[in-house]
């Protein structure tokens, strides 16, 4: 990650709200200035739950079954920031809020399949299924009406 002032860090689990907000506002500014909403539809997926600390409960090599006791309190400060930025955009953005539904699937959270096994990789999941459901949600938006239950 590159922070203002040219400080470079490899911490991919950074929880600093300001850099996240800055990155999302940069994206939003680009979308608002470059995208014609008459010709394109913009989707933004919120973060899955293991993008913040407390990964020990959500590692593939620890958990093999879905969580049986979840109180629906999993949230992401990144998602809150994303909603704040998206709500102030000119171009309409459909937010795919996958954080709560993904919290139940600790058996399908990010894996350690990268070159650095100590680092969870959000692009490579332990099991198929959860990312497939996210794709089905996008497909339902594309094929269905503009009003969908997951917004």
UniProtKB/TrEMBL annotation:
One of its GO terms (cellular component) is Golgi apparatus. Pfam families: PC-Esterase. InterPro entries: TBL, TBL_C. One of its GO terms (molecular function) is O-acetyltransferase activity. Residues 13-140 form the Trichome birefringence-like C-terminal domain. It comes from the Eukaryota. Belongs to the PC-esterase family. TBL subfamily. This is Protein trichome berefringence-like 7.
């Amino acid at each position: 990650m590159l922070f203002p002032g040219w400080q470079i860090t490899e911490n991919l689990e950074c929880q600093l709200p300001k850099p996240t907000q800055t990155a999302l506002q940069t994206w939003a500014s680009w979308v608002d200035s470059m995208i014609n909403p008459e010709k394109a539809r913009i989707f933004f997926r919120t973060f899955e739950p293991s993008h913040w600390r407390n990964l020990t409960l959500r590692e593939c090599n620890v958990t093999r079954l879905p969580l049986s006791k979840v109180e629906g309190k999993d949230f992401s400060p990144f998602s809150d920031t994303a909603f704040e930025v998206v709500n102030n955009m000119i171009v309409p953005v459909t937010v795919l809020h996958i954080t709560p539904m993904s919290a139940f699937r600790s058996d399908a959270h990010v894996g350690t399949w990268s070159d650095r096994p100590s680092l969870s990789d959000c692009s490579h999941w332990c099991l198929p299924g959860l990312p497939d459901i996210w794709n089905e949600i996008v497909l339902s938006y594309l094929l269905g009406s503009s009003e969908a239950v997951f917004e």
